[in-house]
Amino acid sequence: MADKPLLKIDWATHEAAKYAVENWHYSKCMPTASLFKLGVWEDKKFIGVVIFGRGASPQIFKYFKLEQTELCELVRVALKKHKTSVSKIISVCIRILKKSSPGLKAIVSFADSEQGHFGIIYQAGNWDYLGESALDKRYKKNGKLHHPRSLGSKYGNRRDEFLKNKGYEAVKVGIKHRYCFFLDKKIRNNYKIMDYPKCASSKDIVASFDQKEEGGVIPTDALQSLNGKEKEKNEGRSKKAS
Fold first, then answer.
1. Residue 65 carries which DSSP code?
2. How far is CA 48 from the centre of its chain?
3. Which of 60, 151, 192, 199 could form a disulfide with 55 if both were Cys (CB 3.0 to 4.6 A apart)?
4. Which fold has domain 7-134+175-241?
C-alpha cells in the first residue's frame, strides 16, 4: 500500500488562489466577493485551493434566514491531480474556517447540473441536501458565461440593457443542487433535509475526486508560501465577522 501523502492546508495568497482557479477549475473564473482562501499542499507541493465566500446573491441569506456573518458559501474547489480525497481536504478546511470564524453557523455549496455534477463530494462529507435551486441568470459573451455580480464589479452596472450594449447576452442556466454543512447543529431542524440525488454517470465522481490537471507551470515558491499580510487580512476579517 502506498504511503499517504503529507497534507498541509493553510491560508493562501490571492495570486496562488487565482492561479489554481484559472488552471484547475472548470469555470476559469476567480470569484470577486469577500473570500477566505485556503491553499492545499501534498508532500510540500502546491496542488490547489479551497475558497469560501459570502455568496454571490443576497437571496441566499433570506433563504437560510441567517445574518451575513452567520453563513458563507464554498465557492471553489480548484485542485490539480492529487491523492487525498476531496471530502477530507474540505473537512480540514472547514475546521480551520470554523476556528477562525466562531460566529459562523452554516456553509452552503451548489453542485452545477450544467456540468453534470450531483454533489458527490458533499455526500461523501455528510453534508445535508436541501434540494434544487431555481434557474439562474448568467450573461454570455464569446462563448463564456459570466455571473451578474462579476460584471457589476467590472463595469459598475449589471442591468440587462447596459450589458446588452456591451455585447453580453442574458441566458438562463440549469438548476443547481443545494447542499449545506451545519456548524450549529441546533438550527438544522429548521430546514427540510432531503435524500441525496443519485449520480447518473461516473462523470461527477471523476470531476469531484480527481479534477483534471490542465497543464501550465507550477506557481513559484513565492506564490505557494504563506503570505503574512494575506493571513492577517483573513484573520482580521474573520474576527470582524464574529
1. T
2. 12
3. 60
4. Aminopeptidase (3.40.630)
Report residue 170 as a C-alpha cell.
442574458
Given a contact cutoff of 8 angstroms between Cβ atoms, the answer to whether 105 and 70 are in contact is yes
Give 100-153 as a DSSP string: H-TT--EEEEEEEGGGT---HHHHHTTPEEEEEPPPEEEEEETTEEE-HHHHHH
Domains of the chain by residue range: 7-134+175-241, 136-173
pLDDT in tens, the chain (242 residues): 467 899 999 999 999 999 999 999 988 888 877 789 999 999 999 999 999 997 656 677 788 888 888 999 999 999 999 999 999 999 999 999 999 998 999 999 988 766 666 788 999 999 999 998 766 778 888 888 777 777 887 888 888 889 989 899 988 766 788 999 999 999 999 999 999 987 654 444 434 433 333 322 333 333 333 334 444 454 444 444 33
Distance (Å, whole) CA 172 – CA 88? 33
Supply the pTM of this predicted model. Answer: 0.71
